[in-house]
Amino acid sequence: MYFARGGVLTPTGEVELREEQAWHLARVLRARPGESIRVVVDGTQELLVELSEVSAALVRGRVLDVRPARGEPRCRLLLVQAIPKGSGMTELCERTSELGVTSIWPVFSERTVPRPGPAASADRRRRWAKVAGEAAQLAGRSRAPEVEEPAGLDGALERLRERVPDAQLFVCQREPAAVALTAAPYDPLRPAAVLIGPEGGWSPGELGRLRGLGSVTVSLGPRNLRTVVAGVVALTLLLARAGEFGPPLGERA
Question: Is the entire prediction scored with pTM above 0.90?
Answer without folding.
Answer: no
